[in-house]
Amino acid sequence: MRVIVAEDIGFCFGVQRALQMVNSKVESHERIYTLGEVVHNKSVIKSLEQKGVRVIQDQIPHDAKSSVLVIRAHGVPKNQLEELRKVFKIVVDTTCPIVMKLFITAERMHRQGYKIIVFGKKNHPEMQALSGYVQDATITTDPVVLSTKTCILSQTTMSVKEFRKFVEKSIEISSFKELKIMNTICHVTAKRESQVEEIAHQSDLVIVLGGKNSSNTSKLAKIASQITRTVHIEEPSEIDEFDLSDIKTVGIVTGTSTPQEDVKILTEKILIRREKE
Ligand code: SF4
To answer: Which of 39, 230, 256, 268 is the most buried (most CB within 10 A)?
Structure first.
């Protein structure tokens, strides 16, 4: 059996940066809360919990005044950030610079009089945060009829191909005077998107390793499954449940919140099975 591992695996720099920021606070022995899971990965969350880092959703803990709150890479609405700064002793904002660039761009274009359309999933935390920057932004994955002065942007983790289709279809059904299209998709996820396509064409099976609640990981699984047999697992041990006896070439890809170490474990597991079969 041949094993092809994608060129880009493991954490993206945005996740790496967020984890470094959390860990530096762990070292200073502060009480730390994260607003939602800082990484879509169970083992990483578990190891942070062992260091005393707690995940909260909406509730304000009783010891907020003496605690640190970490905002994850997806960001939060601007006014929520201001409110949280009043409540917690310290707020560490790990919003990824690429995500922040999207928020600022949307805000700037809106100020210049553009109607803002964002190709994205309304319930995704990044899009909920964006709504705090441009309250009347339209966030959708369905093509929209464009009005006179419109700016189209994208959630950072969406598929480049799907974004293109969305723009083309929206143009097709509209008549408009002025349109700005800004590709705000993160280059890290865009690169992984083209790599998974390439690998899927060479593989009998693609293993997508990473959180099922991770938007960019689910995107990779969707792309691969349109080309070849695909399994999406969250932990390397889950591969034990799959029969690989008829597989000649297996491809391995990961989302941006999967530790590189997990890829090593998965690859070793597959190679050991190959030797036994
Ligand atoms: S996937 Fe891209 S936008 Fe998202 S955190 Fe990573 S680097 Fe930032």
So the answer is: 256
